[in-house]
Amino acid sequence: MTTKKLLTLALSALMISATAVSVSAATLTDQNPGGQTEVTAHISGSDPHGTVSYKITIPDVVDFGELVQPAANEDSYKTVGYNVSLDEVTGLESGKQISVYVKDQNASIDDDQNFYITNKDNSNISFKYHVFNVPQSQLSEATSINSSTMTKTAGFYLGGFTAPDENVDGTLVINQVQLYGKTLADIAGDYSGYMVFYSAIEDINP
Predict the structure, then answer these.
(1) Is residue 24 part of a domain?
(2) What is d(CA 97, CA 199) in angstroms, rounded to the nearest whole number?
(3) What tens digit of pLDDT does each residue of 35-86 get?
(4) How would you class 1 by CB atoms within 10 Å of its CB: exposed for 0-12, middle for 13-18, buried for 19 or more?
(5) Which of 82, 112, 130, 192 could form a disulfide with 144, with the two C-beta atoms 3.0–4.6 Å apart?
């Protein structure tokens, strides 16, 4: 056998061994002219395009500081800023965004949807505040996200992110007129509440 034939046989054997699946043979004969072949395949449970991974930073604490009882029954607003930002994201498809929702810890679609801070020693004393998704400088042209009706259990839509460093530079606003006419000794103390955030991958402009 020539060297050329040996190389040809070796390459043929290598190509056969590299096929994905070996095929067992069946025969059709004049005695058994029919037959069937099972066609098989396998699909991995993992996403070949990769999964979406992201990291969003939300504030640990947003502090209104000291609230003051106004001298007259007039609006007396106090504001404080907060920030929610997308720090990292991979695998997000075109046309998709990471939506962020927020609500009060006790909010419900079928019940009270307001945001509250509550006296830590007396849960019967609480005051409402509003959440804006714009900075303080733009408040005059904006409405709070909770001025509308919450239609999703996740909360009010706060914003959508598609790329790192996108953020919501927002503001919380409390009207201190709620303190007017109350006995300070009765309402004095520390107050707190919780904004509950939720993120989801959705179509842009949900």
Answers:
(1) no
(2) 10
(3) 655 554 554 555 544 588 999 999 988 999 999 999 999 999 999 999 999 9
(4) exposed
(5) 130
46 is a domain residue: no
Asked if residue 119 is part of any domain, the answer here is yes
Residue 31 structure tokens: 């005695």
Q: How many domains does the chain have?
A: 1
User: Please, are residues 101 and 157 in contact by the beta-carbon 8 Å criterion?
Assistant: yes
- 106: domain CATH number is 2.60.40
Its domain, for residue 152, covers 53-203
Cα–Cα distance measured from residue 115 to residue 36, given in angstroms and rounded to the nearest whole number = 67
Pairing type for strands 126-132 and 167-175 reads: antiparallel
Is 0.85 surpassed by the pTM of this model? Answer: no
Q: Which residues pair with 54 in a beta bridge?
A: 89
